[in-house]
Design goal:
Blueprint (H helix, E strand, L loop, with lengths): L10 H19 L3 H7 L9 H9 L7 H22 L1 H22 L9 H11 L11 H20 L6 H20 L7
Length: 193
């Protein structure tokens, strides 16, 4: 009988999710101070070095367990497939580009809004996943449908629904996933691992 073992099969995705879980725990232990200091982005002074750090680290922070679990579920569902296709290093690039893009857009366009969470990364993963069957010269119907359903819903929600969900982060994350997914499927060499 063959021995069954547990593998760390998607190191980027698993590490990212574990860091996010640790920040939720840390935020609880510090009474919200760790999120304010490191894991949310907001319109702080450009002379504050942490402003630039938070442009990236806000994707690790979450407002609580429900927020984290919602994002972690999608990350763990889509991430391993993407990590297998594109490689671990490439997914860190997606996470970093998405974090910076959502952080900058939030800082510039929404100066009174704090932003935290991995939902921009989730939407980048959702859009990238729709490119998995891409062939040069073709646009997958799955990509078109995913873009219409997910991004269209975010635009509608952003215009007509008042809640604490950052539709901007979803739209920007989806755009990052679309651009990188397209580029890396048209020119697949040179970005893996």
């Amino acid at each position: 009988m063959k021995k069954i073992s547990i593998t760390y099969n998607a190191p980027t995705v698993l590490t990212f999710v574990l860091i996010c879980a640790a920040t939720v725990i840390l935020n609880g232990l510090t009474g919200g101070r760790s999120n304010s200091l490191l894991f949310v982005t907001y319109h702080s002074s450009l002379t504050d070095l942490l402003t630039y750090v938070r442009f990236f680290t806000h994707v690790f922070g979450h407002s609580g367990w429900a927020h984290f679990v919602g994002n972690a579920t999608y990350l763990l569902l889509l991430g391993p497939m993407l990590e297998e296709k594109y490689g671990s290093k490439t997914l860190w690039i997606v996470i970093g580009v998405t974090a910076l893009a959502t952080g900058l857009v939030n800082y510039i366009l929404f100066p009174n809004v704090t932003l935290c969470g991995a939902s921009g990364v989730v939407f980048a993963f959702i859009i990238m996943a729709s490119f998995t069957g891409f062939r040069n010269g073709e646009i997958p119907l799955t990509f078109i449908l995913v873009a219409i359903i997910f991004i269209g819903q975010q635009i509608i929600d952003g215009l007509f629904v008042t809640d604490n969900i950052s539709n901007m982060a979803h739209i920007v994350g989806g755009a990052v996933g679309a651009v990188l997914g397209y580029i890396w499927n048209v020119h697949p060499a040179g970005h893996r691992r």
